[in-house]
Amino acid sequence: xxFWPFWKFLRWQDVLDILIVAYLFYRILLxxxxxxxxxxxxxxxxxxxxxxxxGELKLLTLHWLLGTFMSSIFxxxxxxxxxxxxxxxxxxxxxxxxxxxxxxxxxIEEVVxxxxxxxxxxxxxxxVFERETGLNEFIESGIPVEARVNxxxxxxxxxxxxxxxxxxxxxxxxxxxxxxxxxxxxxxxxIGRGLGTRHRAAIGITEVSDAVSVVVSEETGAISxxxxxxxTRDISAPTLRKMLxxxxxxxxxxxxWRRKIFK
Length: 263
Ligand SMILES: Nc1ncnc2c1ncn2[C@@H]1O[C@H](COP(=O)(O)OP(=O)(O)OP(=O)(O)O)[C@@H](O)[C@H]1O
Fold this sequence. Notes:
Elements: H1 4-8, H2 12-32, H3 36-56, H4 60-71, H5 73-80, H6 82-93, H7 96-121, E1 125-129, H8 136-139, E2 143-148, H9 151-158, E3 168-172, E4 175-181, H10 197-208, E5 212-216, E6 223-227, E7 230-232, H11 237-247, H12 250-253, H13 256-262
Parallel strand pairs: 1-3
Antiparallel strand pairs: 1-5, 2-4, 3-4, 5-6, 6-7
Helix pairs in contact: 3-4, 7-9, 7-11
This protein binds adenosine-5'-triphosphate.
Organism: Thermosulfurimonas dismutans
Pfam families: CdaA_N, DAC
Enzyme class: transferase
């Protein structure tokens, strides 16, 4: 009953307002999860807490110093997170319909061709697709490439004679950003005993982010796909194409008439 006055003054605009802000926070958290931005955000919150404590304890100089810093905190945040903000804005401004055929279907096709070849020749590989969660933290451990995804490029990177063949490649928005990337290994004890570090790394990155990773086994030539900490082993090239299209959102934005006619 005590809450009644509160509900009485609640307008539908307030509900909408709260929902939009909650959604924005949710998207920001998704975007920075697994990146250095999380540690930086934690660091900034320590400074905010120290500022209020200094105020309460009347530590004048410290309070003044932190206050001066906090007055420009907005600028600091923009500078520190410029990369993430840029990515978020590009993401928001992009119409899903524009992305459809051009970007992802071509990228998937090139990846499927490269993976089929590598599977046949038993060339070990890990290809990671970044989705919402930023993977900058891991990209920085590798060698920058910044190139359009292409079958031959992928094969030459993973060829055993290539200096870049160890580790994974990371693809963001259809561009191959880095090679020789070190991924976190999965610590899941329930993963099959036969799986070595390549497969554990491919699963590991999907445990700490929403990325999708594709692995080719050097030992058996088997193709596997990991997402959400789970791996689907020994899949065919058509299955890989289908799963990638599904996980990268291609199917959902394909025109309905196309789906109906071609299925
Ligand atoms: N943390 C890591 N991040 C990225 N790649 C890794 C990582 N650890 C190992 N690798 C890759 O995996 C290779 C070793 O694979 P290993 O034989 O141990 O695993 P596997 O799962 O049995 O794979 P395969 O079936 O291809 O033999 C390394 O040469 C390296 O390229």
